[in-house]
Structures are given as structure tokens and as C-alpha cells.
Amino acid sequence: MAHLFPNIKQKFFNSDGEPLAGGLLYSYVAGTTTLQATYTDASAVTPNPNPVVLDANGEANIWIGPGAYKFQLTDADDAVQWTVDNVSHIDANYITAAMIKDGEVTSAKLAANVLSADAVGRSKMAEGFLSADAAGRAKMAPGYITRQKLAPVEVLSSDPASLSILSFDYVDVPTLFVTITTTGKPVFVGLTPAAPEDPAYIGASTSVVGFYRAQFRLMRATTVISTVWVAAYNTNEFNTSTYVPPGSLWCLLPVAAGTHTFKVQIAGGVPANAEALVSNCKLIAYEIG
Predict the structure, then answer these.
(1) What is the pLDDT of residues 190-208, one digit of tens each?
(2) Which of 44, 70, 129, 157 is deepest in the core (most CB within 10 A)?
(3) DSSP state at residue 4
(4) Has this prediction a pTM greater than 0.70?
(5) Which residues contact 246 (CB under 8 A, 6 or more apart)?
């Protein structure tokens, strides 16, 4: 990518377009009459005299610092040619609070040198924050983004659940419940294996000839949010079972910001004589986004 060639040596002219030989360039803090140094080279070690005296070609080496300047150019007899205020240069490595426009990110919102290349400024940028001090972190109200606030919101039920019932009425499965506090983004809720090395499933089992199904459902408080049926078909009066992965029972749903409780209920035979099975499962709730 190409760039415009910079003005590497400053040259000044009088009103007739002639080089301003012996001209004087005064530099001040922007908006004031307080002298502010310019420099002889990019190292900013050696300041120019103030005013800078132009050579016979009306030229001088003038490097400015990070602050804002006011410049006044005069001829050799100190007659003012022009005055320009609020002159500044922002390079890729130096942004100060004073340079940031009010109404966007203001100097009041930033500690001095928080966004700068110097060691002091970098030390103030604590991990995940725009301020290293506790007071600064406390000012980051909900709605702002911190690394801590971006951490996933996830809740896993405490103990593995294994249960078998014949009852036609739905019953809660002990331990298959979670409570999660969300920020208003969608939530995934579902069954997951309690441990990768142990068989985990939900299923139906019957020893009676016929077609039967067991029922499994996810609840948010008292509201059904997902239902799965698992069928068992017996043709010979021997015990027949059907198993499916725990992940067969799940739901992704929008929820308002707040605290929500989810649980699993199961019911046996439809019609009678089917046993509902849960083995080595846990319930997980996970906020998406």
C-alpha cells in the first residue's frame, strides 16, 4: 500500500511567494501565549529555539510533540504573517485523553495516559478493564463490555440421575434441575451424559406385547418447553427396550433477563405397562451469545 510523501522539511514564504529568509516561527500551547517546544528531530530530545529562525531558504527542521500547538509566523522584523491555533499530530503510538473529542470518549472518562504507548499507561490497563483501579472498574455499569461479563453463563445439575418408573403421571426426576441467572440472551437447556465413560440414555422398556411409549419433558418452572416420546414395540412377551441419547431432550428458547429454573419430568406407559428410563444423565442450561 502506497502513502503520500510527507512534508519532511518545512518551508515558509512571504505574501509575495518568496522564501521567508530569517523569518521567525513561534510555538505556543494551543489557545494560550505559553511557549511550547518543538524539536530538531524525531527523537524529541533537542528542542528548537523558540522562535525558530528560518534559514536563507525560509526552511527549518521542525518536529512537534504530542500536545496541541498554536503557531505564529513573522518576518525577520517580527511582522506577523499568520497565526494558526490547535495544531496537533497523532501518530500510531500516542493517544492522550486530551486529544479525544468530547461527546464520544472524553478525558473525564479516561485516566491520564490509559490509552498510550508509554509504560505507565500500559501498566494501568489491567486485564479485561480500561482502568486498573477499583473505582474505575466500579464505574463500568451493566451494558458495558468486560472480559468477565463475556464469560459464558452455564449451569450443570449437581449429581447424575438414574430413574425408572411405570407411573402414567409425570414425576420430577431427582437432581435433574438447574437455576440460571441470564442477561436476556437465548438459553439452551438439555440433557447431557454425566460422564463420558458411563452409558447414558433415556428410554422405554416393556415385557408386554404391544406398542408402548415413555414420555420425557423439559419444564421452565411450571411451563412445558419440550417433549420427547420414546417407543418400545414388543412382539414376544420378552422384555423389549429402546434407548436414545440424552441429547434427544433439549430446547433453545428466548428468555427475559432474570433467574429461571428448569427441570425434567418423566412418565411411564402410554398405554399402561411401559417403563420410562433415565440413566446417568445431567441437565445443563447455557446462555447463548
Answers:
(1) 999 998 888 999 999 988 8
(2) 157
(3) P
(4) no
(5) 190, 191, 192, 193, 200, 201, 202, 281
